[in-house]
Amino acid sequence: MPDPAAPSDMIARLRLIRSENIGPITYFQLLARFGSAQAAIEAIPDLAARGGGRAPRLVPRSQIEREMEEVERLGARYLFLGSPPYPPLLAELETAPPALMVQGHVTLLDQPAVALVGARNASAAACRYARQLAQGLGASGTIIVSGLARGIDTAAHDGSLESGTIAVIAGGIDIFYPPENEARQRAIAERGLLIAEQAPGVEPRARHFPYRNRIIAGLALGTVVVEAAPRSGSLITARLAAEFGREVMAVPGSPLDPRAQGCNQLIRDGATLVQTAEDVLEAIEPGQIRPFRQPGRLYAPPELSTDADERHRQLVAGLLSVTAVPIDELIRQSDLPAPIVQTVLLELELAGRLERHAGGKVSLAA
Amino acid sequence: MPDPAAPSDMIARLRLIRSENIGPITYFQLLARFGSAQAAIEAIPDLAARGGGRAPRLVPRSQIEREMEEVERLGARYLFLGSPPYPPLLAELETAPPALMVQGHVTLLDQPAVALVGARNASAAACRYARQLAQGLGASGTIIVSGLARGIDTAAHDGSLESGTIAVIAGGIDIFYPPENEARQRAIAERGLLIAEQAPGVEPRARHFPYRNRIIAGLALGTVVVEAAPRSGSLITARLAAEFGREVMAVPGSPLDPRAQGCNQLIRDGATLVQTAEDVLEAIEPGQIRPFRQPGRLYAPPELSTDADERHRQLVAGLLSVTAVPIDELIRQSDLPAPIVQTVLLELELAGRLERHAGGKVSLAA
């Protein structure tokens, strides 16, 4: 693959990333099959036509050039997957962000990190506890990752600003959300590390928060949840951490406290109960990491094929419905080679006819 | 064995049980080897002499007769191990009490029971929680077992007095401790079930509480701990429950609450986190019981031998020290048949030269 530091390749990559119908998984498959972002861009109209639809409208070059100027003007920089100092733990994810924007000290990405997340409406006691836990972990050389939300996130960053804090935000790197955290976000961009996946100027919307949460969980050896209501965003981060094979830790609370319900349920579901920084360090120490965790394992996109033909496309499309099914199931039922099925799915996706879901599932686009 | 309902056999059994140097394990071995308590009593002087000491002073017949009259006068009755309605789950224990005194409804022993224990100085909120948990479990037909101590125990009994409550006390059945629970103890003796292992008139002493705790844990399918400080009696009950292969459950609390430390540590050590009666019922349902739990398995005392001679006694005694060692280790190191070693240990014990410890360990008497 070309050096992603070359401006022309960066532009081609960003054009792919910023375009509709192209998520991280499709992006990886295109780069793996065509060898470069530019070659993928040139191949897309033909792929989409074979998928039975119109090619996705690619973001124009000029828009990416403006974005790159803006990133430079903000004093930020890009990190591209595949090139240092892109964080290696994050690169393990199937859905690793192809590009990140960062402001601050990228050397923080070289140190072991723990995510510390929790309720926005946390109790004062829990916030003080989270700040002290972050301090304790920081004193041991552990970097704290959080989401710069109100409540626990804010306390986690405050406790680790001196020792090393990484804030991952849902919107663009120049957007201050929540507004009262503007000074805190500026301080982290200067003394810690601020990370955004969305382009500058993008206001955070509801769908951006789960994307943000996957980065928080993906950067860390483990995620600690402090006070979380059932079905809260913090629990999504914890679930993602478990999916990524990372340690999931939770701080317990009284059954009489509604804000403890999410954490207590996590512990019932197998999360490690932690009370102190020592508990957290014990849980993430290399010997303790669960067997399915394979450090340094980069996600490898599935193999594609140049032999997919109309018969294959009809067969696979006929097996799809609006109900998501595992790709493995499609391969089995179609009795076709996996690279053929993956190729047909990529073509359908670029044609806007396919949606990808968590857990390697796909469905017809609604 | 003779029918333990025969008064003469009851007297002989109680004479053994109430005598020094004869704990439950020795009692079982004597009964298994000699077939009846009376035969064991007659054999003891000879066994002790072979063990190199004087025979333990057996409690006189007249003292037991007075005890039996007192038990009858109190409206209590004996339960002897091996005869219904002695509780079958308790009979599984290696250290099952050979005899219990009970007052109240023995039919409560036929229903599934959960032990609910905790701190004497528990918070008001935790006491209210324990009372409600006991009520919820009672509503499902589960009997509550506890120790009639202040705090959580009291709340557990109060919540289950209507539905079924069993109180196990450390002293004699006629001793009210703590004094402020006299009315509660009388109510349980009338409407629930009151259980004591010590003879009437025995004031509870520190060494009686772990004995009491083993009965609480032994009667129940599982033990729930609500608020417990580290190294508290409730944790001993939980540890005993785990040793007996029963479910250990704990109610979590904030790391900021010192009274939650014991429970949180239990959960870290593998106890099931419970918040509701449903959580408890789920944990103790038959399918959930841990594999090493074998319901209905009665403890079988080790086989003894009539062939032990002086050479064997010297060999085994030479391997003993004041440091407790597992009996299995003695068997291996002496290279003698297990029944010979067990016989020598029994003789040494009756001679006052041996002490038995938890986990099948023995040492020279200090």
Task: Name a few traits of the molecule.
homodimer; 366 residues; three-stranded antiparallel sheet; 12 strands
Give a written overview of the molecule:
Two copies of one chain form a homodimer. Chain A is an alpha/beta fold and 366 residues long. Helices cover 43% and strands 14% of the residues of chain A. Chain A contains 15 helices and twelve strands. Chain A has a nine-stranded mixed beta sheet with strand order 1-2-6-5-4-3-7-8-9, sandwiched between helices. Chain A has a three-stranded antiparallel beta sheet with strand order 10-12-11. In chain A, helix 11 links the parallel strand 8 and strand 9 (272-273). In chain A, helix 3 (37-50) packs across helix 15 and helix 9 packs across helix 10. The radius of gyration of chain A is 21 Å and the shape is globular. Mean pLDDT of chain A is 91; it is low at 288-296. The A-B interface holds A 125-126, 129, 251-257, 260-261, 264, 267-268, 272-273, 275-276, 279 and B 125-126, 129, 251-257, 260-261, 264, 267-268, 272-273, 275-276, 279.
What share of the residues of chain A lie within helices? 40-55%
Biggest interface and its residues per chain?
A: A-B, 20 and 20 residues
In quaternary terms, these chains amount to homodimer
β-strand amount of chain A? 5-15%
Mean pLDDT of chain A: 91
Spatial strand sequence of the major β-sheet of chain A: 1-2-6-5-4-3-7-8-9
- The whole-angstrom Rg of chain A is 21 Å
Count the helices of chain A. How many?
Answer: 15
User: Structural class of the secondary elements of chain A?
Assistant: alpha/beta
Per the principal axes of the C-alpha atoms, what is the gross shape of chain A?
A: globular
Find the count of extended strands of chain A (DSSP E, 2+ residues).
Answer: 12
Low-confidence stretches of chain A: 288-296
Largest sheet of chain A: 9 strands, mixed
Alpha carbon gap, first and last residue of chain A: 35 Å
Order of helices and strands of chain A: HHHHEHEEHEHEHEHEHEHEHHEHHEE
